[in-house]
Specification:
Distance between the termini: 61 Å
Shape: globular
Helix content: 10-25%
Largest sheet: 8 strands, mixed
Number of strands: 26
Length: about 425
Amino acid sequence: MPNIANDPNRKSWINVPENSDFPIQNIPFGVFITKEDVITIGTRIGNCAIDMGALQQLGYFEGIELTDDMFMQDTLNNFISDGKKTWRLVRNRLAELFDENNPKLRDNSAHREIIIFKVEDIEMLLPVQIGDYTDFYSSKEHATNVGKMFRDPENALLPNWLHIPVGYHGRSSTIVPSGIPVHRPYGQTLPNGETNPVFGPSKLVDFELETAFITTDANLMGEPIPVEEAEEHIFGMVLFNDWSARDIQKWEYVPLGPFLAKNFASSISPWIVTMDALEPFRVKGPEQSPTPLPYLQQKGNKAFDINLEVAIKPEHTAETIVSRSNFKYMYWSMSQQLAHHTINGCRINSGDMMGSGTISGPTEDSFGSMLELTWGGQKPIQMNDGSERKFINDNDTVIIRGFCQNEQVRVGFGEVSSKLLPAINLKF
């Protein structure tokens, strides 16, 4: 089935500002609530949110096999379960409907009033019910930097790292959409020079620059997903800030890995950009040496050229951009991550989320965490207001943005923005 929604020459009758992340070639999917407290599945073009539930009720998806309430739900899970054929049919229909040369909705002012909202008049919600969440550790630069800081600099990568996409099973209950603030977490830490741990708020809260991909119902228990088929089961991607408490992490992660340092909050951008929309931005990933085992070997361009940046905004002053990176630097691809995740027969369901792991580039200004950018706090970052940051301060807002761009079109994710609030006052 052709992917006609990606036509770079197509224009919409909805105004799209210059350098918008949401031209008609994007057509992402999300869930929002209107001022009338109606929750609906929708898409976005320019600065307009489009109520797909209303579109369905008014017959604009006629000819596509959909359940009657497909877009009148509060999550995308059922739509994602329908598979790639349905995703493409719906996205193609939306592209045709909002094409500048199609008068069907363009010239129906009564329907437009029901269907189209200004983005400032809606509230974005979590787009999927996330059943399971896995976080990977797939940036060679990030893993090397962390290894240099915490282990032998001459042997920064652990022996398994170049052979498998390392990951851990995370916690989905505290994944929140952009705009939801996060409290500084409590936990145990071991101060330098001490032999006994102490309890209190983390002093070293950090962001992690990541993306995440959302899966469909991919397999049965016991059934691996071949690496060459993995992308067929990936609906799309979001930006992902995997908040981390580095002092808690340092004390607790041996021997089983992250726990309280990671499960207190993760923030995602609310619009899921489909793999179809990202197709024009494929690039070749890094060379992998040694050659992976056969079940992880892949052919073709499996990386994506996604420009990423992180800004920190203190409460009363302008933001400072602290990192610029790119998803194409990732050593292990999404296909390899999903193939490895299921090689033991692990079942993958609609709405499951897989974090990329921190995305760090080859230069100091492209590192994907404060841990690396300040080298564990040894090199504070100068902010535009004259203050310094070693890690994230209370009332700082962390903003992650991402977009793809070639000579013809720009397709982006918008942003994931979340404020770090002070620790809740615990009383024992």
